[in-house]
């Protein structure tokens, strides 16, 4: 029950967006079964939201322990670049082995990026935003280095299944996102891990005194964040059948932070919600799709997002709430 | 910095002064090392105009970075600078080219827009206690979104006043500077003056050192922090004007990634991202280092442009590690 209460705001925003979507496009909510799989605008939204959901979940995990990872966009680009390079090298005779190599290589490299961030934060003791800023700046350069500055096109057809394929009529990307969401939900709400993370986020010193291995857990969460970005990179590159070191995952870190904040996770750490984060990512993707469908220039999206961020921030801020209370209470006391 | 250290022995006192100046000294050495390397590898590298061009080509980065230095000195961050630059090139280009507004009206207007953005950030951060990172991120979305609303295409500027200002060169005997570079020099000088010779500057350092202590000392903390974001917004707007002159166009994608370059320049210049320690002059050297890396890469001709990003990231890492090392060694904290 309590979890439903915290999800009220994101659920309401999503509902409003869906209503606007239906008003601008009457077939918005219609889902049909075509050529052996589900089809419709809503399925498109879910399918395109998959990378953002994954990245946002990773971001939520590090924000919950008072961290942040602004390098996820760069990690997406690196992962896509590694996968595309590995698979195009083995292009002619590319078989299942090459596919596994490419996916495994990309995931290993992105996990390594996460470990790097985690080590800088945990071992060196840098502020998370500074530590991940380094990879954010250098990462795009590294991605371009891997692809030699080219946009690599992937011709190997089975690779496209990750981002475009269907399993039992449901998009594969959506299934991946769903699986990760369920796994995280179980790990964070049904095991002690979630409790540990809340403890670290609420008060790192107290958590340490209570005997929680804060450093180890933090390192694991940064690795998880890198890995999630890596999977998102695979989905994105598979969806567009190419890897662009410069533009893949551009501004994704900002969308992910926005999704986390919209979902009701406290940006000060300690409070997080897996379901809320997924809702936040869906809100952003629905907004994007609605704007595309309404015929406004797609870049206007940014201005709407800014308004959303400001609204979410003001709702979360105790300072704003105090100010509002003072403004509302004062006239009553005078009367 | 930390209160209650008046009884330090001279030895630790000397170490602390060293610790503050060390990053700046290393930055300066690095700059001269890069210059030496360049002069040994390439002919004509030591020509005076090469160095003046560093200023000409990085004038807008320099101006933005000075504003960013003050923000970071208070322990904050401003991610909206690149977007405000883009918005301002777009506003001035569309006003002057499409609506026939005089440049002398457009330029003050865009400066006011930048300052208004900064004021909004400052108020949200200081009075509503929101995180600077998130607030200025939203400001970045807003500014870029507004720039796209004005137009998604690049607008070329061919108004005679802009043409005149853009082609004007200030002769220095051994070379020449553009108007933008001259503005950047004035901003750096003004920044140094503001940081070290005014009550505002001293309050900025005090807030960055310890906000609660600064408040207890009776300093105007809230007003100063809002002022710092306002200054950064104004600097971004000024950089937008300089960029309009440099590019002779308005485009909503101008200055993308500029905030990262500015933060990198500030950190390489020896300013602590935690706030309280740093110098505007260091930031200037940081900008010059980023510029000279680009120059070296373009002189070389075989290295690709993405090496700039990798080298900038590596430098950032090196300086952050150095700062951590100095912090651990320093007894003050």
What key attributes describe this structure?
A: 335 residues, mainly alpha, ABC transporter involved in vitamin B12 uptake, BtuC, two-stranded antiparallel sheet, two-stranded antiparallel ribbon, 15 helices, 73% helix, B: 333 residues, 14 helices, 74% helix
Q: How helical, in percent, are the residues of chain A? A: over 70%
The number of distinct β-strands of chain A equals 6
Number of strands of chain B: 4
Please give the share of residues in helix of chain B.
Answer: over 70%
Number of domains of chain B: 1
The count of helical stretches of chain A stands at: 15
Summed over residues and divided by their number, the pLDDT of chain B gives a mean of 83
The ordered string of helix (H) and strand (E) elements of chain A is HHEEHHHHEHEEHHHHEHHHH
Summarize the structure.
The complex is a heterodimer of chains A (335) and B (333). Helix content of chain A is 73%, strand content 5%.
Fold and architecture overview:
The complex is a heterodimer of chains A (335) and B (333). Chain A is 73% helix and 5% strand. Chain A has 335 residues and is mainly alpha-helical. Chain A has one domain (2-316): Orthogonal Bundle (ABC transporter involved in vitamin B12 uptake, BtuC). In chain A, the strands form three sheets. A two-stranded antiparallel ribbon of chain A has the order 1-2. In chain A, strand 1 and strand 2 form a beta hairpin. Chain B is mainly alpha-helical and 333 residues long. Chain B has a single domain (27-329), classed as Orthogonal Bundle (ABC transporter involved in vitamin B12 uptake, BtuC), CATH 1.10.3470. In chain B, helix 2 (48-57) packs across helix 8 (179-197), helix 3 (59-73) packs parallel to helix 8 and helix 3 packs antiparallel against helix 13. Chain B is globular. Chains A and B meet through helix 6, helix 12, helix 14 and helix 15 of A and helix 6, helix 12 and helix 14 of B.
